[in-house]
Amino acid sequence: MSVHYKSRYAIGPAETKTLDTAALRANFLIETVFADDAIQLVYTHYDRYIAGGAKPVNKPLQLETIDALRAPYFLERRELGIINVGGAGMVTVDGEGYELGFKEALYVGKGNEKVVFSSNDAAAPAKFYLNSAPAHHAYPTKKVTKAEAEIVELGSLETANHRIINKLLVNSVIETCQLQMGMTELKVGSVWNTMPAHTHDRRMEVYFYFEIPEGQAVSHFMGQPEETRHIWMHNEQAVISPPWSVHAGAGTSSYTFIWGMAGENLDYDDMDKRAITDLK
């Protein structure tokens, strides 16, 4: 079997305050997203969200169901978002192929029984970053390129957070049940993402950091605004953000990250913003 998964239980802010570094990482960090010829998944009990990666090198990989779903196939009651962060590859959905290049996205709706990932070149394998959430309706499978994304430019070099937000799989671009995904690219010289920080009590989120240069890292900040914690992260790692937690980071260089979220609503701007000076 090429699909491997782990479960993470949801914990609250009171328990999180008591965790040391190792326990904080064990609960929230997804340390290995990609492994050769395998699909790696983490099933979190925050909104039943799944995050992980598929890296087909020498063979195609099929997205098989996992025990936690109690379902005959993975997407029986789920939707799936995919963003390729590697070489060119193909996602075949119930017999129909979708070519995905670097930083291109694909939404796969509920009810599709067979999803297969493959790479065009084993020497430059595709790396399909995956997010999945429970779904109540079957929306069409659709590819979205950066040219088709909703683009927002925020921040400035003076505050070290000049960034481009590419809204790829969001309700202003395609129809989804609750899954929303996009990609934020920091300009050279900028290191802060998502500042000022915020929480959104009606949605959880997962960040996936990539394009971090060798020897560099990102310090990801989480926790309640008045009691923050940090997790040091390296290239191609992800971190789970509960609804009660801020989610922001600062790198030792510029980088890119993919955000994915699910919950009560599809309103991207439904945020409880906190002033920088209020963070502790």
CATH topology: Jelly Rolls
The H/E string reads EHHEEEEEEEEEEEEEEEEEEEEEEE
The side-by-side strand order for the widest beta sheet comes to: 1-3-4-11-6-9-12
Query: What sort of overall outline do the alpha carbons produce when their principal axes are compared?
Result: globular
Number of continuous helical runs: 2
Number of domains: 1
The strand count comes to 24
Strand content: 35-45%
Q: Which sheet architecture does the biggest sheet show?
A: 7 strands, mixed
The CATH class designation is Mainly Beta
Q: C-alpha Rg, in Å?
A: 18 Å
Structural class: mainly beta
Amino- and carboxy-terminal Cα gap: 45 Å
Question: What's the pLDDT, averaged over the residues?
Answer: 96
Characterization of this structure:
- The chain has 280 residues and is mainly β.
- It has a single domain, classed as Jelly Rolls (Sandwich).
- It contains two helices and 24 strands.
- It has helices at 13-16, 21-28, and strands at 3-8, 29-30, 38-44, 50-55, 61-62, 78-84, 89-93, 96-100, 105-108, 115-119, 128-134, 142-144, 150-154, 163-169, 180-186, 192-193, 198-199, 203-210, 218-224, 227-233, 237-241, 248-251, 256-263, 272-273.
- A seven-stranded mixed beta sheet has the order 1-3-4-11-6-9-12, with no helix packed on it.
- β7 and β8 (96-100) form a beta hairpin.
- The radius of gyration is 18 Å and the shape is globular.
